[in-house]
Predict the 3D structure of the following.
Amino acid sequence: MDEHVEGCMLCPRECGSDREKKAGFCGVSGKADSVRAAKAMLHFGEEPPISGTKGSGAIFFSGCNMRCVYCQNYMISSEAFGRDISLSRLSDIFLELQEQGAHNINLVTGTHYVPQIVRALEAVRGRLYIPVVFNCGGYEKTETIRMLDGLADIYLPDVKYFDDSYAVRYSGAKNYFEMALAAVREMVRQTGKYRIHNGIMSKGVIVRHMILPGCHKDSIRILEELEAFKDQVLISLMRQYYPCGRAESFSEINRRLTTFEYRKVLDKCEALGFNGFVQDKSAACGEMTPSFDLDGI
């Protein structure tokens, strides 16, 4: 039994669940020799140096340690839809995506499976030659991120909140920003300054942030706190929010983002001198969400 599965302490929630017998807060069990996933695909909706022209080799893991009320992947994050697969199958998926021409292997929401992911990646050392991307919700323990040192080449943390009142209300995540900032610091330590060659990223950190309705001042605080990293990381400001999941139960976010809100955050990002990416208003639609049909699993 893997010590990180029995009495799970992988994420800041430290729920302590024996995931061999009972799902943790993430909603999935944690058998040491398997993971649950909902889709593997060439994904063209990531940032330009991640998707490139051939696509990012994305594996969407079931369950999530965030389970935000507005999640656009609610079907897999909160309802844990997916199929249990062996670690050998996971390793094969890595190689299959590489064979299809993927620019990278994109591990989407895999925090609760890090020990298994590590084993699957180690099994293909010498055969997997494209970068590995760890794509997460930002609520990470540095100890867990350190397990990926030497295996993950690129990190895509989605830093969601500065104010804990938002983090608790929408994600039930206490001390969110404290944990996210420490995680970003560890990610930068591992990768160093971002590296892009011929338009494709090979190393580094892209800090994502999706602006929420009514929370643009919180978004600005996040950018101010991240200014210390502006020469090391790229910033991706996401405008893709639209009410989904359980957002209709929270009247203040049961609407789309306004142009005013988005411009305020974008203006601050530019004033602080960040490099990175922005989304067009058209991104705020369901077309950004893949169809979770177990394809490629």
In short: Residues 1-5 have pLDDT under 50 and may be disordered. The longest strand covers residues 200-210. Residues 123 and 175 are 35 Å apart (CA to CA).
